[in-house]
Write a structure and sequence with these properties.
Blueprint lengths: L25 E4 L45 H7 L12 E3 L23 E5 L10 E3 L18 E4 L2 E3 L6 E3 L6 E2 L4 E2 L12 E5 L13 E7 L2 H6 L1 H12 L10 E7 L3 E5 L8 E5 L15 E2 L4 H14 L10 H12 L5 E5 L24 H11 L14 E2 L5 H5 L17 H16 L3 E10 L3 E7 L3 E4 L2 E7 L5 E7 L8 E12 L4 E11 L4 H6 L3 H18 L2 H22 L9 E3 L5 H10 L11 H13 L2 H8 L2 E4 L9 E3 L2 E3 L4 E2 L11 E5 L3 E6 L5 H6 L22 H15 L6 E5 L6 H6 L12 H12 L2
Parallel strand pairs: 4-10, 11-12, 11-16, 16-17, 31-32
Antiparallel strand pairs: 1-3, 1-22, 2-25, 3-22, 5-6, 6-7, 8-9, 10-24, 12-13, 12-15, 13-14, 18-21, 18-23, 19-22, 20-21, 23-24, 26-29, 26-30, 27-28, 30-31
Helix pairs in contact: 3-4, 3-8, 10-11, 10-12, 11-12, 11-18
Length: 797
């Protein structure tokens, strides 16, 4: 079940603290979901669209000001206006997990606290693509004079001329310009302005929000052209995809572009106007890299398009006879850094092997027998920190394509990492399609340059730790040289002061960035949540997906700062501690079995799923670069994608019908039920689709019906199904149309392209399919039932 909400409210999921006095430096939790609650602004006695009516009551202010028809922001008030955030008594029903294991995931929207042993934090998706986003152009952006909070739907209007900040409670004057509503064209209704009507809004920033004129969009591409790289054939795919999407790069008439290639030396390309063809400039001194002819290496895209297209057409053939096997990635990044420094922009790096010469040269640290030991930490630390000094917060985003992952480059520059295992244009063609589709999305998606993001919260709360890819400039300020709509962030919060006299708390993120059109913009998200007074209400509002996402981010940090074993223990202890607290503090009658609040009924299952994920699994199945890449995904993925990769969705698809189907753009999308991740749910006479986020498996049972095999797979019988089948033929049959529509619909909901593997009982990939059966035992991990017995034993100690 998925909770629906207005699209423009779907960026900033948060949590609810408990009002009891908090011990110092206590780590707390946050509640997520996929919607923002919208409260009626100030003194407006109406409900937001789609929300039920709310009761109004008086609020007392310490300054004695008369309240101006302001409905009280009580827990009941918030409950009525938050729609999906309503606290239902069902959430308090105790569940014996040992008896009720047949529970399937749902999307939850709720909230938690420290006595419950649950973490408090925020999961943010601040630059998400939104179909509805109010944009305000005004010379006056109204903010609190004390804490600089942007005016929002959760402030209190004392009268038409004064409003009270919902974060620091300072009373501010309403500016004269704000009295006029440009939407309704009415004077004297500040509470009806868009800023006070929308929890997510974007401002066109005036000149005081600029330290310099907005930078032009600048794109620099750095290609590995060593012998190994040319052999993979990736350069043909990348250059052709760039050619196809050159006109779709976000930008304007000022857009600039440049190219660098490297093997054991660095190659620059002069694209000076007037040249008949691009000119290659080689720098062989990789110990002291310099930039030759810097004025001709980053050129205007529109004015030099023909030269740029010529270079992209000829580049794949220029190094076909090269026998150079070395990789000077470090010096190439130094060169890119120097070239980009004056303006800033985005650097896209494509590498196929470990850097072997010059600054940052690495040696292989892969030891198959030591993959699950403390030596993993040594490999992670070395691979993620060697390039840190190359990634200042003002310059570049560095996605790493094709090969071993060095996560630190993207971590400190707000970038992202892509990984294509065993990429080869002939031997692994399915990876070619994946690279093409993901590169197109990467090149054409929205982008923000020279961004900073500040997160504010109500007095009494404070930020404990940030998670994601960014550079921390101060306690609440993140520098994001580039920001993209596919990046997520997590923030651990602490309760520093007692919240007993508060009815609600608020959180606000403000993202200041330069758009690809050269506009300085501020995107603001605000969330307001009720403060509850009992521990049972904390459990009632617990958001299990948010808790899992935050714990996953914390576990990655623990893996690096301590050991993988410590991170795994911390995940298990989080379940034990929270269920122990529930048993001792909430349950009035001690009952046999493993009791959990209904809201946390999936908590043990999600933690077990994390333990079996490549980032945290033991055993020798996960290679070091796979483990590091998965950790990078945990730190950078928005929650909705992280949860899908952690706990895949399983569907039976050989009996799809139109009953309950969605109708989207004249397409009928079947909606089969989600099944538990256990082989017990598989039948040999069926076909099952597993959606694991970045990959999909279609498992065909040995006795699957002949009609599905012929009308969907297009082959006469089970034995004729090809061993390496990765595409479904488009057949003119109802079964084929339904199956392809369902798979396409799933793929469209994410920014990356999941490969579809069609597998049989004797397929080599069947083991990968079975590894995602979270509830079953593996060689190195417990089954779900065994895990619950272990948790029960620890809780009942």
């Amino acid at each position: 079940m998925t909770t629906k909400s207005p699209p423009y409210l779907s960026s900033l999921p948060l949590a609810t603290p408990h009002p009891s006095p908090a011990p110092p430096n206590v780590k707390m939790n946050r509640s997520v979901g996929y919607s923002y609650p919208t409260l009626p602004p100030g003194y407006q006695n109406t409900s937001p669209p789609g929300a039920p009516g709310m009761q109004a009551s008086a609020l007392q202010y310490p300054d004695g000001s008369k309240h101006f028809h302001q409905p009280a922001l009580s827990t009941n008030h918030l409950t009525a206006s938050m729609g999906g955030l309503s606290l239902q008594q069902e959430g308090l029903r105790p569940v014996n997990l040992l008896q009720e294991r047949n529970i399937l995931p749902m999307t939850l929207l709720k909230a938690p606290n420290y006595k419950s042993k649950l973490p408090l934090g925020l999961l943010l998706h601040p630059f998400k693509d939104l179909s509805q986003l109010p944009v305000v152009t005004s010379s006056t952006i109204v903010r609190c004079r004390s804490c600089r909070t942007y005016i929002n739907p959760f402030v209190s209007f004392l009268d038409q001329r004064r409003w009270k900040c919902n974060l620091c409670y300072r009373v501010n004057d309403v500016p004269e310009e704000f009295m006029y509503n440009p939407v309704t064209r009415v004077y004297g209704e500040p509470h009806k302005r868009p800023e006070v009507q929308n929890a997510t809004i974007e401002f066109m920033a005036p000149s005081e929000y600029m330290l310099r004129p907005p930078q032009p969009p600048v794109y620099l591409f750095v290609f590995d052209v060593s012998h190994n790289a040319i052999e993979t054939g990736y350069l043909n795919t990348v250059c052709q995809t760039l050619l196809d999407n050159l006109d779709l790069l976000p930008g304007n008439t000022r857009t600039k572009i440049g190219f660098i290639t490297f093997d054991s030396t660095i190659h620059f390309y002069s694209l000076q106007e007037g040249l008949s063809q691009p000119q290659m400039l080689i720098v062989s001194d990789i110990e002291d890299v310099f930039i030759p002819m810097p004025e001709n290496l980053l050129v205007n895209l529109n004015e030099n398009k023909e030269l740029i297209q010529d270079l992209l057409r000829t580049l794949p053939q220029m190094f076909t006879k090269s026998l150079e096997t070395q990789s000077a990635l470090g010096p190439a990044l130094q060169a890119a850094f120097k070239l980009m420094s004056p303006t800033g922009g985005r650097i896209s790096v494509f590498q196929t092997q470990l850097p072997s010469v010059g600054m940052g040269a690495l040696k292989s640290r892969e030891e198959p027998n030591q993959r699950a030991t403390a030596k993993v930490r040594k490999g992670i630390l070395h691979s993620t920190c060697i390039f840190k000094r190359l990634t200042p917060a003002t310059v570049c985003n560095l996605p790493i394509y094709v090969g071993f992952v060095s996560g630190c480059i993207s971590r400190y520059s707000a970038g992202s990492v892509y990984y294509y295992q065993s990429y080869h244009h002939k031997h692994n063609p399915v990876q070619v399609e994946k690279l093409q589709k993901e590169l197109k999305r990467y090149l054409t998606r929205k982008i923000g340059f020279e961004a900073v993001m500040r997160i504010r919260c109500t007095k009494g709360l404070s930020i404990h730790t940030f998670h994601g890819n960014f550079f921390v400039r101060s306690t609440d300020l993140l520098s994001l040289p580039n920001v993209n709509p596919d990046a997520g962030y997590a923030v651990q919060m602490s309760v520093e002061e007692s919240l007993t006299d508060m009815q609600v708390v608020s959180f606000q993120s403000a993202l200041l960035y330069t758009s690809s059109k050269g506009e300085r913009r501020i995107r603001v998200h605000t969330m307001c949540l009720p403060v509850v007074t009992t521990l049972s209400e904390v459990y009632l509002g617990a958001d299990v997906q948010a808790i899992t996402g935050l714990l996953a981010n914390m576990a990655v940090d623990r893996s690096v700062s301590a050991t993988l074993s410590d991170a795994r223990d911390a995940l298990v202890n989080a379940v034990i501690d929270s269920l122990s607290a529930y048993r001792s503090s909430v349950l009035s009658i001690q009952q046999p079995g493993l009791m959990a609040p209904f809201s946390l009924r999936l908590f043990p299952l999600y933690v077990l799923a994390l333990l079996k994920q490549k980032a945290f699994q033991t055993g020798t199945n996960a290679r070091l670069d796979e483990r590091i890449f998965t950790m990078c995904q945990v730190k950078n993925q928005p929650l909705v994608y992280l949860m899908l990769m952690t706990h895949p969705s399983l569907y039976r698809v050989d009996n799809l019908t139109d009953e309950g189907a969605l109708n989207i753009n004249d397409r009928t999308i079947p909606q089969p039920p989600i099944l538990q991740l256990s082989v017990e749910k598989l039948s040999r006479d069926g076909a099952y689709l597993m959606d694991a986020g970045s990959v999909m498996f279609l498992w065909i049972g040995k006795n699957c019906g002949q009609s599905f095999i012929s009308q969907v797979l297009g082959v006469p019988n089970y034995g004729s199904i090809p061993q390496n089948m990765t595409h479904l033929p488009e057949l003119e049959t109802a079964e084929s149309i339904r199956t392809i529509a369902f798979i396409s619909w799933l793929r469209e909901q994410r920014p990356f392209f999941p490969i579809l593997y069609i597998i049989k009982d004797d397929s080599p990939l069947k083991s990968s399919f079975l590894q995602n059966m979270i509830e079953d035992r593996t060689e190195s991990a417990l089954s779900y039932y065994e895990f619950l017995l272990h948790i029960q034993q620890q809780v009942n100690k």
